[in-house]
Amino acid sequence: MSDDTFDVVFIGGGPGGYIGAIKAAQLGLKAACVEMRGTLGGTCLNVGCIPSKALLQSSHLYHEAEAEFAAHGIKTTGLALDLKAMMARKDNVVTDLTTGIEGLFKKNKVTYIVGRGTVTDAGTVQVAPMDGSKGGECTLKTENIVIATGSDVMGLPGVEIDEKTIVSSTGALTLKKVPKHLVVIGGGYIGLEMGSVWGRLGAKVTVVEFLDRITPGMDGELSRHLQRALTSQGMEFRLGTKVMAVKTAKGGVELTLEPASGGDAETLKANVVLVSIGRKPYTDGLGLAQAGVTMDDRGFIPVDEDYQTNVGGIFAIGDVLPDRPMLAHKAEEEGVVVAEKIAGHVGAVNYGAIPGVCYTWPEVATVGQSEDDLKAAGTAYNKGRFAFAANSRARSSGDTTGGFVKLLADKETDRLLGAHIIGPDAGTMIAELVLALEMGASSEDIALTCHAHPTLNEAVKEAALAVTGKTLNS
Prior knowledge:
Elements: E1 4-11, H1 15-26, E2 31-35, H2 42-47, H3 49-67, H4 83-108, E3 111-114, E4 116-121, E5 124-128, E6 138-147, E7 151-153, E8 166-167, H5 169-172, E9 181-185, H6 189-200, E10 204-208, H7 220-232, E11 236-238, E12 241-249, E13 252-259, E14 266-270, E15 272-275, E16 279-281, E17 314-316, H8 328-342, E18 356-358, E19 363-368, H9 371-377, E20 381-387, H10 392-397, E21 404-410, E22 416-423, H11 426-438, H12 443-447, H13 458-466
Parallel strand pairs: 1-2, 1-6, 2-3, 6-17, 8-15, 9-10, 9-15, 10-11
Antiparallel strand pairs: 4-5, 5-6, 7-16, 12-13, 13-14, 18-19, 19-22, 20-21, 21-22
Helix pairs in contact: 1-4, 1-8, 3-4, 3-6
């Protein structure tokens, strides 16, 4: 495209960038979004949240047909896995959604530029074409620049990811066959989700975690329950274990492990190793240091309450911000707010009401403070807990999974402080509790809200009743 002038240019077309650009355009700003991938949606849509959920759904259905249909009176014969077709479905889901965002850009008159954006100064973005892209080199003049470049896979020192036998989460989405033995390094959400996919399809899955628990940061009770559930599904856990080396070997990969507390080394062999130890901000090569933007020693960009960096007119949102959850929906909220602020409006993100979901089976969803948080802070609280085993919809669906809903409320005011769910469809169920937290509701408010019968959400009502010890169905 030819050089042009804009009110705001977003560098990065992921959830924060594309949503922010659309919101800016809706507020009357002339907005552009620069994205080097060649497709919009960022890591989440292209090689993260969406393709992984497509495979989680497909693998769940396969596992149900293989192991659970008989209990429902459904007989299957000749059941077989067509991995190529499963992968094609995943790819089609991604393609449909990425092209849909391009349609939204056109509808809202957002200029979409394919290329690598570099900040020359507070008012200039230089765009270089990517190999094989449909964009061209251009210079954009703008009143405001928003860095929304997201994050990248964090590597393990001394371990070379080849995306074939030693893979990141990206490579784990495109394996050509089901590995006999998959080792997942890291017991966080992404590793457990991808381990679940391949475990359901027939792989032996071993999770190696440096800490003495999985899902650090999750409410401890939920974390322990999740580990028990995944263990019952065949997943093996090596906790408190340090990975010293990973190298390709005949027939696959060989890992050298040691106890995290020190001790003798041992060897573990696998066909495929997934390195899933976290993510790092994507801030290299953006020209930020040259433009005077301050970054910390990990590459994160500190901002003020308006998401503005130390350089006026340059803002940052999403995974590049320090000490905030790396979540797509969090980035979307920030994209909306930064657009509102640039347009002269008022906006804010309530970081205390950002839900987190682990899409294993059972699903785990949380919002607000955990019991560990409250105990550490010395906060007096009441707890209400209700098991899905006593929920009629869960029982009729056969989806009890031993899960539960747990609500934590201030002991004096009854105001909701945290909500935690492990069980069927937890990621959807958490929404009403996010709203309750956002609105400052009490456990009594939730308990007095009529919930349809029979639904899984009745477990939320019962957990709220349990805060004061007045459950009706247990």
